[in-house]
Amino acid sequence: MAHVLLIGPDTDTLAALRRVLVAEGHTVSSAADLTAALARPAPDIVIAGAGLLEELRRLRETAAQVEEVERRNRQLTRSADRSRKLQSIFQAMAATLDPLEMMDILAEKIVTHLGYKAAVLGVYSDEENALKLAALYPKTHLAEAARILGGDPWRLKFPLPDNQILNILARGKMWQSESFYDFASPVLDRQAADSLQALYGVRHHIVVPVMARGRLVGSILAGCDSEIDPEARQILLSLARHAALSIENARLFEAEQRRTVQLETASMVARDAAAILDVNRLLDEVVRLISDRFGFYHAGVFLIDDSGQFAVLEAASSAGGQRMLERGHRLAVGKVGIVGYVAKSGEPRIALDVGRDAVHFANPDLPETRSEMALPLIGRGRIIGVLDVQSEQEAAFTREDVATLQTLADQLAVAIENARLFEAEQRRRRETETLYRASQALATTLDLPRLFERILSELQQVVPYDSASV
To answer: Can you say how many angstroms the Cα of residue 80 is from the centroid of all Cα atoms in its chain?
Structure first.
């Protein structure tokens, strides 16, 4: 503590100076202490007038106030800058109703606007209980990432039950770590995870959950080369909340659009079922409608043959399906593939990931299949065939898809039975007419050669043949 020597006979000045110095925390000595103070080996003495010290105190107060104002201005500038960046990102996200396109935009903005080295966005799949890669930025390292992974990065998925960090996200909490392996294990081994981290030059990671209505719908993983401060975390949380709203709105819109398409398709199938009495033409029209309206890359209809041992492909929408039709493709009932299983059991079977389905038949004509659904065609209480649809996407079928397609399968089964009944009735009518004309010929014609020729001609209308003799 400094010893202060008071100079000047003015009592009021001394008193004022004493108050100032005491307020400043100094030990105050009188002039009588001067000799003792100067005699010290290293005196700590301040010699000043009261007016100067008062001015210094005011200057210090002013400087502190200026510093506080500057601090607040810097804070306001950062806040305004953050708001501008967030508003720019929000506007870009709002420009699309496609969830994947929105996430692509968000991943890019996290890097270009917020200064992160890399951003990876995931979308949660209810069917698989896993986070699947939905967006990544920058994309310049994708080829090298594929080499490290030994496969397509876009097919990565992270099951929640296998990873503690993902379960933390599912509870709505963020997570930070210096190691990407913490997030990627056990899907990726340590070497692959570390190699990817080095590839993108990341030293610190943060993962923020994207929550909608209290449930996990996605995630934002951002990486940078410096520690992530609380303000940066808050920005990512704001983006996650906005992303959740965008994803939810997009999903609601997409679901409504898809439902509209489903109802329209069901109506079209019902219309065709009532109007088309030719089975082959009906099946061709139905598989085309299903592929076009639902976006599945293959749809096919199998009918059980008269022996009951084989499901025979009768109509297909894809190029691979057309090749199968040309060579008379058929599957043994109860023995080969998902179609064979359904043809035997009469129960629907859905493979969201055909690679993991025990009964899936890997068809070389349909190599891009990632998910498959087969639904029974049941007419008059018996299995008459199978409706088979396949997609290039894993987990491509929603509950609404299954319900709608089962309704279509039921309508199709009824239409097939009706068409078969109509064909049978038409055949019986032709047979009856042929028998009537033949009997008329027998009653009116005595010329046997002409009679036999006429009978054979009438017979060909009922039973087509290449040659016949009497």
So the answer is: 33
